[in-house]
Write a structure and sequence with these properties.
295 residues, alpha/beta, 8 helices, single chain, two-stranded parallel sheet
Length: 295
Amino acid sequence: MSCDPLRKGENSLSRRISSRLVPLLLVFFLISCMGEVPPVSDEPPPVKPVISEEPPSASQVPVLLYHHLVPAIEEQDESNTAVISVEDFAEQMAWLAENEYYTPTLEEFCGWLAGETWLPEKSVLITFDDGYDSVGKHAFPVLQQCGLRATVFVIGTSIGRVGATRSSLGWNDLKALYDTGLMEVQSHTFDGHGKTPEDMGFASWDTERIRADLDRLGQLFVEHGMDRPWAFAYPFGVVSPALLQALSESGFRLAFTTEPGLATPDSDPLLVPRIAIWPGTDPQKLAQLLSKPSR
């Protein structure tokens, strides 16, 4: 055995160099395999854009127009096309619910017209003119069961009126419907409806008289615990320049005609078309009306 101290020192130094060199070589080998190491940056990683999967908003919204409902067993005046059976109405509402139609609030509908609110492609408004008690007695239970909203446009002088063939909702009835959140209550004039299309009513009044009428009904709404009306339905669908001016000056944001058609984002908020529903309208006919109403 050699005991040369120089050679022994050389061997010891070689072992130390070797033990340090191997890990360094291993690190360089790994770096060469991985490619160039990116420089360390204090900048946060870029945020990937979020792609929205929300479908486009509705391009059109049908507004259905109803008046009075009676059970099929009761004798009906066939000359009055504004009266439909409770059974037909129930079948129509069930079809809307089964096909997942959405009934927006008037506020949502107003926002949609202004391009500010998204609505599902299957959206529909349900409206009742005149405020007959059949809205509370027959229509509302069906709407509630189907989970659908609606709006009733009332005539102030007719509220609480009892008639031989039909009666109107009273103030307590209206407040009860209003409180459910499923039925909105709005204006069909206080005393400007007229009796027939020939009796022009509101349409023959000047702007000042119309404003006074609108304000009177608005005050009564507040007195009975409801918000002032801000949506309007034209009596018999008759529109006049004075009426349009009065509605605008009185803060009305929506007004509905009887002109057939579908509401679109291009529709004038004070001239919204509606689709009148006649007796004998089955779900198949309703489906056609929702896509392309006939005159």
